[in-house]
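re: that chain from earlier
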Amino acid sequence: MSYIAFDKEKLVNINFAKEREILRCSRSGAFATTTLCGLNTRKYHGLFIVPQDNLGGGRHLLVSGLNENIVVNDMDFHLGIHQYKGKVIDPKGNKYLQNFSADSVPVYDYRVGKFNFQKSMLFQHDADRIIIKYTFLDKEDNLALQVEPLLAFRDIHQLTHANNDVHTDFETVENGVGFCMYNGYTPVYFQFSEPIQYQHHPDWYYNIEYEEELKRGYEGHEDLWRPGTLTAKVQVTIGTEPMNPAEIAKLYTSEAKKRTPRYNFASCLKNAAEQFLVQRNGRTDIIAGYPWFGRWGRDTFIALPGLTLAIGKTALFEEIADSMVADLKDGLFPNIGTGDNAAYNSVDAPLWFIRALQIYFEHVGKPKKLWTKYGDVIKQILNAYRNGTMNNIRMLDNGLIYAGGPGLALTWMDAVVDGRPVTPRTGCQVEINALWFNAIKFGLDLARVSHDKTFIADWEPVVADFPNVFKETFWSKEMGYLADYVDGDYKNFQVRPNMLIAASLPFSPISERLKQLVLKRVTEELLVDKGIRTLSPKDPEYKGHYMGNQAERDAAYHQGTVWPWLLFPYTDCLMHVYPESAPEVLNRILYHFDGCMTYYGVSTVAEITDGDPPFKPNGCISQAWSVAALLYMKWNIEQVKK
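^ sequence. v structure.
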């Protein structure tokens, strides 16, 4: 039996199927996502979601789905499934499903009456194009496939409603038609591998309901435009440019051969890693999470080692790093956005960039080459922090980094409710200062090998007494762990995982004994099966469930919610403090995630889980740094075995 497979009993159970979502991507940035039974429950669900370079590069949902109708001996079998306002589901095409498997590509097995057929789909690896293949297993002369595209042509974060601005005309191409609802968009072409019939009867489907959006406190109803009906028997491709229909079958076959089968947990992680990589317009970027996140600077650098080095893609590491370096400004990387729309509100992204370079160096060596290529970037970052840069990020006289101010949330705990950060952490944050010390020490190591005497003379004095200052500022002998942040005389001693980051670094400012105590505290109060809590359950502000509207969810986001990505610094810390027992412990943690492969985001890892059992997954169905952390953990275990 396939590792990722579901039978008829599960597929016809809508409640079961809609809790499991599938995702497929191209390296061009196009993707498709929906639930297991094909019922779209989010505004982000769609068959063909594509970056629109003419509209600022954002991702837009062009094709929501297809209404598919199999006609056998003049009998109609509607395969579609939609939920309308009031939780009315019609039709219920999932009743014809017999099996779903996703070894290499997603394959649905259908039976209508006594007639059996399969439907599979995949994206062209390097283009904005999806190919859907219909394989009819039983011979039937009087058979036809009718396809009605349901179009939206909107930003993925928005909804569309019936309007009179739609371009209702169509373009005829070989074996197909093309549509473009609004000016500025790329057209969408539907082409079949054989000649088709097309009936143009444009109309709106009203009040499509997205249940998950309503649960999350957002608007959840949309109108979709149906231009007409295409009738054929064969494969169809949906793309932003026409192609030669005679090449469709060959293209599908060649693309299918490139796919890595999802035959076990490890292969699912590797496949998931590749889905975050986007190569477009001369850049290589990491998408932070599907379906709603784009490129995030902080997430990119935290995920970078796991998504590249851990799976043997060293050259890809540099491609992504170089793309990000092009956006460096005043020593900072964009947290989100690009160009004029970039937000440089991340104090830790540049320091995580240097940490990623450090892991790269540990893997490939070549310090002189690394300093030659990235030395000036490291200097820009360190000088900007020392001299002061945006968002009140600056070095104090004692060498510590201070960051933030009223209304600012600059660390990874950046949730904001009603304009106020939930965890503001203004001041000297424990992980920021540890990352700062680590960055300088790493830079000094590279500079010594490269005989950069100016850098050495400039920065050795900064770190000479730093461990003493750090300990005096953050450590409490009475508490037995590190403060989360310090602002003047105020010290916040909530038990959070940020002190774990401080203890995990190769150049940590704390002693081995303090590392052991930090690790013990984190393990006892924060570590669970699916990651690490953001706040101890003993804290009165702890929230064990991530649910409700946006304000309620954001209030819980870093107040107890579990994040798998924190297993990245946990791995480093455990491997350093307890090298002999660490592999066995990490291996147990790693395979707690095996069962996740068939729940929530199928064959990938979610952004977060609840802080309380049973640690229900939530947030993005597929998160880059979650997948990266597990690959990084697996990589470290394997290196010990060698």
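The first strand starts at residue 5 and ends at 7.
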